[in-house]
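S2.1 Query sequence (Neprosin PEP catalytic domain-containing protein)
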Amino acid sequence: MAPAVFVALIIFSVVSCGDCRKPGGAISKEQEYHSELEKRLQTLNKPAVKTIIYKETGDVINCVRINEQSAFDHPALKNHKIQLHPTFSKLDDVSAASSRSNTSTKLLKLRGTREACPDGTVPIRRTTKEDLIRYDALSKEFLGSKAQGGPEKKANLRLDNKGKIYGSSVSVALYSLNIADDQESSADVTVENGPVGQVDQLTIGWRVSKSLNGDKRTTLFGYWHGFVNNSGCYNTLCPGFVQVDQEILINYAFTDPLSVYGSPSQQTTTPLTLEQAADSGNWWLIAGDDRIKIGYWPKEILPNLADGAVAVTWGGTVSPGPNGDYPPMGNGHLPDGLYKDTCYFSRVKYANFDRRYTDPVEADTTVHVGASNICYDLKIVAPDEKLIVESFAFMFGGPGGRCN
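Output structure tokens follow.
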């Protein structure tokens, strides 16, 4: 059994104990933790108007009234007005790039792939005590390792010093990954702003993580971190993200067909956009070739991002298990110049200072690979006419292993 899972099971067994008091009747730390978990579950699992079980994944979904979701338990959102129809200035450039493409790659459409919640309600994945215990163990391990310099390794492309950045749009290849239970691997887009040591950050993408999701499916995710009160979390594991769409939720599990290594005719990508609405300042998650507005992070919880970002990064992120072995990134293969053989980002664009979408200029970007290039690598490449049209693109990934 993996060490992290074993520890989590021990924690769960202890906090489930019905008689965990210290001698003299004092409440133990285990009981305090158990009580805290129950309170968090009450906050996160609001009363459901309807419950849906996804046949494709087994997830239990609560259809919660949109104005009663746990996002509004955040102190900064007590008087928040829900936004349903954001304004995205000059966004047509992004959708046009998709429609012009004559491509053999399958651009994933999400609408119609899940049962929708009734009008006035939104889908929220039901959180269990086991979910919180795994997440707490993950957070504790992450924070402890960050203090020692961090075990995360990245292969990414960074753009900054170009003035304000109001969003990014990409298409990213979707792959399943064979990783250990205590490892994590993602393909992601991150925007950030704030002085050193006080950075607010938003990340979207797909992630394979049993610690986060309870299984090893390739799953859409969002993560936010605010400098104020050191707050933030993944998906809806804390108040913050406002779910708006009635069908597609933030931690949507992608199902087959995903991309197949070595097959040019079996490449599946999903368009993803992280965009700040011009009229509200809220940061929206938009996914699928049908551009579904899933929901948003209100500007109130990320004050340093209230007026745009100053940097955006694209690429892969991995975390090892306790034994120090790093998981595969991307599709587990190093970039070889062939799109059929490696994971890739295509149609990479960012919204510049006047909110026009534009391709990055390679000379303005910085490539960062935080490990030996036998573990991971990233290469900017010319567009492939059969797969990508009018696009800035790069390949990334690798097998992982002992990468220190």
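The helical segments are 3-15, 29-44, 92-100, 129-147, 210-213. Residues 1-20, 95-102, 143-150 have pLDDT under 50 and may be disordered.
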